[in-house]
Structures are given as C-alpha cells and as structure tokens.
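cron nightly-structures :: item 1 of 1
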Amino acid sequence: MKLKIYFDEYLIKLNGISVILLLIFGVFLVSSATAVESQRIYSDSFYMIANHGLGILIGVGMFLLIKRFNYLYFFKFLTPLVLVMIGALFVLPTMGVNLFGSTRWLDIGNIRIQPSELAKPIIILWVARQLSNEKIKEHDLKIIWRAGFIPGFAVILIFLQPDFGTTATIAFIVLIQFSFSKIKFIYPALFSIVGWFIGRYYIESEFYRAERLRVWSEGICNQGQELLGACFQVHQSRIAISSGGMFGLGPGTSRARWGSLPSAYSDFISAIIGEEYGFIGYLIFIFILSVCIISFFLIAVREENEFKKIFISGLGAWVLFQSVLNLGASVYLLPITGIVLPFVSYGGTAMVSIFVALGICLLYTSPSPRDVEESRMPSSA
C-alpha cells in the first residue's frame, strides 16, 4: 500500500516537473518567435511575450485557486458553465472576430478570448461527471446520451466557425473519456466511425479544405511543388528545422521569425525548436513532452476515484492529440490544422484553459464536513 502511494506521488511530481519544463521551453521559444512580429505590430518587441507571461500567471493563479476546492463543489456550477459555453459559441457567428477565414474569437472590452479553448475543460468536466455515475451500466444509453449531447452540440458550433482542428480534438477527448469509463467500448467505436464520415464530408464540402487534404494525401509538398502556394508554410517549416542541424542556431537566433514562416509562435512553434536548439534539443523536447503525456495516462489508470480517472484521461487525450497534430504538421506528416502546442505555443486563452483543467485534476476527493454540507450534488444534476 505504501509503495502504491509512493509511486502515485512520484507520478504526480514527474508530471508537474514535465509541465514546468515545457512552460520554460515555451517562454524561451515564444520570446524569440514573437520579437519581430511584436515590434512590427506594437512597436515593442516584448509586448507579445508579456501577454504570454500574463496568460501563464493567470493560468497558474486559477490552478492554485481551483485545486483547493472539493470537486463536488464544481458540480453545482457545471450547468451554468455549460450554458455560458454554449452561449459564447452560439453568438460567435454574429459577434465574433474573423481572422484568417475563421470566426473563433470574441472581444470583451480589451480582452480577446477563444471560446472553443475554454470549452475544452468544461466539456471534459461534463463528460467525467456523467460517466462517473455510480449507477452506470455498460449499455446505459441514457447516460451515453447525457454525456454525449453537450459535447456533440458544442462540436457542431465549433465545426461551423470553421475550426476542424478543435472539433477533432474535442471528439478525440470524449472518445478517450468513454474508453476509460464503464461504458462498453463498442459505443465510442461507433461514435468514432460516424465522426470519421461526418468529418470527411465536412472537409470535402469546401474547396480549400478539400484541396489542403488532397495536397497532403498525394504528397505534393514532398515533390517540391506548390512551394509558394499550398506548401509554403510546410516548406518554410522544414527549412527552419533543417537549418538547425544537430545543435541548433542558438536561443533567440531564429531566421524564420523574420516573416518567412507565418504563425511561427503558435501553429509552427515546433519548427523554432528545431531551428534554435537543433536535433538534440528537439529530441529532449519530445522526451519531456512524452513524459508529460504518459504520466497523465498512468495517473488516470491508477486513479481509484472514477470521476478523476475519467477527467485526467480527457486531459491526457487533450495534450496528446494536439501535440501530435502540431508536431506532425510542422514536418507534414499530418495536414495543417492550426492547432497550438499545449504549454508551449503563444495563446492566453489556451494557456488559462489547460491550467484550469490541471487544477480540477488535483481537486481534493475527501470532502470536509463543510464541503459535504455546501457542495452536495443536486439530485437533478
């Protein structure tokens, strides 16, 4: 028993260390990748890295605050949170800010947020709450419907922004959460098959999406074609990575940040890793990221509390799927989806949302008498 407790504590510490190392990596990378863009737009080379740092501070603050509560306390606010999430996604088409052909952002005063990022921890929380019901059965269609309806509705709204990367991410997260629950695997398997056909139809319904898939599937970028067209970003990303050689050009010496690689600080941040830190630095980064992801799933497997097990598996799926999409796109093993690298890429909303999820992971599971009285779950939840 003592050995089990010791190993569980070791896994949590290992996960925490890996997250901290990824954050440090990210600060150095974003500081370098944003310097030129920040100077050009804001006349201050430190403006964007300051925003990135602020996002981390807010995220850490939320993490420290949330983890002090009992998880039952949050169930009281789950339905209002879901309603706010759906409302924010619903008003995006009319009130949102359109950038790069997608309406994904909402301006609230001087603050710009991305509701689809904030939706991730809420959806993970919702699914974990429904699937951790003690009375759940392997073929409980009522629970499956309740757990899947809210994510499904949110996915449709995100689908229409359009944001296929986030849509696929949320679908994968929910699939993994179902797999860690008591529900028979046949149901998440059926959902994934249906999702595949819907996603395929969605991609082929618009020319630019179908063209992007065609270029990737036919390996056109590997043939040296479309270097100034559909393959421009990929080509520049490969140049950046290859120019780093074995040991890299050195921190803060990126050439791609001067404009040759669009979105170098977000979608293609991994190219900056290869350019500035070389093949060795890239391997070290992949190792740290792998430790982070594997530790999430090991913690979930060993967790006895059903709610925390399902929630942590969702967080692990989140980091895993986005990391694979981001890293794969930078070398064109996967098509470009505009997905950021967790804990590393520039983006305040993404940083805050993932720290909120981390805080929920560490919520106390043994309520105090006051928590029992104040945080009793509503019978209608």
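cron nightly-structures :: done
The chain is about 65% helix and 5% strand.
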